[in-house]
Queue: 2 jobs
Job 1
Amino acid sequence: MIIHIVGGFLGSGKTTLLIEMAKAYIDKGKTVVILENESGEIGVDGMVLENNGLKSVELANGCICCSLTGSLQAAMRYIETEMKPDVVIIEPTGLALPHKVVEIIRGTVDEEATTIIGIVDAKRFAGLLEKKGDFLRMQISKSNVLWINKIDTVEFDTIFEISSWLRQTCPGVQIYMVSGKTGEGMKEALAGSLIL
Ligand SMILES: Nc1nc2c(ncn2[C@@H]2O[C@H](COP(=O)(O)OP(=O)(O)OP(=O)(O)O)[C@@H](O)[C@H]2O)c(=O)[nH]1
Ligand SMILES: [Mg+2]
C-alpha cells in the first residue's frame, strides 16, 4: 500500500487538501481509504469525507501518535486485510507528530511507500511561529514534501518569508504553494507529491 500522512497544525487545511489527493488517485483508477484521527468524539471530518464520496475509518478520543498507537496499528491491519485499498491517507490530529505515526505503523503493514506531506497555514504562520515555534518545527521537520496552504489569504511577501523559513528548517524538501479554496497550485503539488 502507498501511505501518505498529511500533517499540519489545527485548521491548516489537512482535510480540505487530502480530499483533493484522494480524488487525484481515484481519477487514476486507484482505490483510497482515509484514516481520520479526531482527538474528541464528534467526527466532523468523517462526515465531510462521506459527503465527498470517500471511504474513511475513524479513530477518535485520543491521538494516534501517543494514546492510540495500538488502535492505529490494528486499524492499519484491518484496512490492509479487509478493505485492501491501493492508497491510505492518514490525517492525524493537528497536535500530532507525523513522524511518530510513521514509526508506529512501520512493520505492521506492507508499505510500498510511506511519505509525510506537511501542510503549513500561510494565514496563521506568523502567530504560530511566535507562540509555538518549537512545536511547529518539530511537527514539520520530517516532512517529505511541504505545502504552504491558504496562499489566497496573504501577500506574496508572506509566502516568501514562509518558504525561506521552511527551506532553513527542512533543507532540500520540495515546497509547493497552494490554495485549497481557489485550487491555485494544486495540480503541481499533487503531481509532485503523490505516486500516481
Ligand atoms: N481561505 C482559505 N481557506 C482554506 C483553505 N484551505 C482550507 N481552508 C479553510 O480552513 C478551515 C480549516 O480547513 P480544514 O481542511 O478543516 O483543516 P484541518 O487541518 O483538517 O483542520 P483540523 O482537522 O480541525 O485540524 C476550513 O474552514 C477550510 O474551508 C485555503 O486554501 N484558503
Ligand atoms: Mg481535518
Job 2
Amino acid sequence: MQGEILITQLNDFIFCPASIYFHNLYGNTDRMLFQSKKQINGTAAHEKVDNNTYSSKKCILSAIDVYCEKYGLSGKIDLYNVDTGVLTERKRTIKTIYDGYIFQVYAQYFALIELGYHVKKINLYSMTDNKKYNIKLPGDDEEMLNKFEQTIQDMRSFRLEQFEQSNPLKCKNCIYEPACDRGIK
Ligand code: SF4
C-alpha cells in the first residue's frame, strides 16, 4: 500500500488486510448490501461526529480532517478537548480493547501533536454502556508504539495476491466473505 493510509484502515488491517481491498472496491455505496446490523450500528455511532453535530463548543474539535506527516496517515479527529487536552475515540460498544482501536487514537494523537496541540490524555469511550477506558500515551507504552509502527510498515509492504487468511472465524464474521477469494471457505 503506497501513499496515505486512512486512520480507519489501521483497524481494518488488523481484522484482515484483504478487507481493505474490498472496502475500497465497494466503498460506502454498497454498505447496506454488505454491512451487518451490528456494523451499521457501529457506523451510526460515528455519524454525529462525521456530521459535525456533536458540539458547537469552541474548545471541542470533532470531525476535523487531519494528516500525520510522520506516518503518512490521514483521517478525522473523533473528539479532542483543547482546554483539557483529552483525546477521545468513541465506539458504539467496547467489549475488548483491540490493538486497532489503540492505533486509531495513536494516529489522531500524532496528527494533533504535529498541529501543535498538547494531548495529555487518551480515552476510548464505549457509548452504550457509558464506560471509559484510559489508554497510555504512546510515549509511555513502548511495546504498543512498536506494534503501531510495525503495523504501518506491514501495511505499506502488503501484497493482496500473496495473502491468505488463516483464521476461518474471521471469514465467517466478515461482510465481504461472499466476494472474497482470500479466505477459507
Ligand atoms: S472473507 Fe476472510 S479473507 Fe476475505 S476479507 Fe473477509 S476475513 Fe479477509
